[in-house]
Amino acid sequence: MLNKNIQITLASKSPRRRKLLKSLGLKFRSISVDLNEDILDGEHPILTVKRLSLHKLELAKNKIKSGIIITADTIVVLNKEIIGKPKNEKDAFNILKNLSGKTHIVYTGFAIENVDNQKKIIDYEKTKVTFRVLSDDEINEYIKSGSPMDKAGAYGIQDDYGALFVSKINGCYYNVVGLPLQKLFINLKKII
């Protein structure tokens, strides 16, 4: 479906994004880019994820000189407040307690560029996720597993516990995991 001869680089430390990209049958390499993912006061979530993805792309272009580069950034938004990764276990507890019994929105921005022809696309996906009411014991047990500490919103929908917290989603499941596969694939075909 995609040109198998073109080198694809995923510029992400996320094992979830690597697993998702691998599920498409694409051969790619992955590198990490170090970026302080600053959330700007008053910035709309769409602008935030697109800005961070583009910034990661620009950093990756310092290392990658040909082929396609893919970057992404995911955030969780509850009541117009952007929630990133938890700072510590107490923060993870507070985040999950706030998400309990409510609907939040997951935004993933992604940037892709074909370095060889300079075609670039920056886009995003949005998914609504509803949590059931969570007990303090459930939240604490999940935090003890260590799983929430590297995830926006302090949960992973693909995790054992994280999956049990979600009662409903409206939109792309893969977006909540960290990479909206359908939209990414459609856009990759546009830049080859």
Query: Could you name the CATH class?
Result: Alpha Beta
Pairing-aware structural class of the strands and helices?
alpha/beta
Uncertain runs: none
Radius of gyration: 17 Å
**What share of the residues does DSSP label as strand, in percent?**
25-35%
* Terminal-residue CA separation: 11 Å
The pLDDT mean sits at 93
Please name the CATH topology: Maf protein
GO biological process, one term: nucleotide metabolic process
Catalytic activity: dTTP + H2O = dTMP + diphosphate + H(+); UTP + H2O = UMP + diphosphate + H(+)
Main location: cytoplasm
Keywords: Cytoplasm, Hydrolase, Nucleotide metabolism
Structure, explained:
The chain has 192 residues and is α/β, with parallel strands linked by helices. The chain has a single domain, classed as Maf protein, CATH 3.90.950. Helices cover 35% and strands 27% of the residues. It contains 7 helices and 7 strands. Strands 1, 2, 3, 4, 5, 6 and 7 form a 7-stranded mixed beta sheet that branches. Strand 1, helix 1 and strand 2 (29-31) form a beta-alpha-beta unit. The mean pLDDT is 93.
Keywords:
seven-stranded mixed β-sheet, 192 residues, 35% helix, 7 helices, Maf protein, alpha/beta
Helices and strands in order:
Elements: E1 8-11, H1 15-23, E2 29-31, H2 45-60, E3 68-78, E4 81-83, H3 89-99, E5 103-114, E6 119-131, H4 136-144, H5 160-165, E7 166-170, H6 173-177, H7 181-191
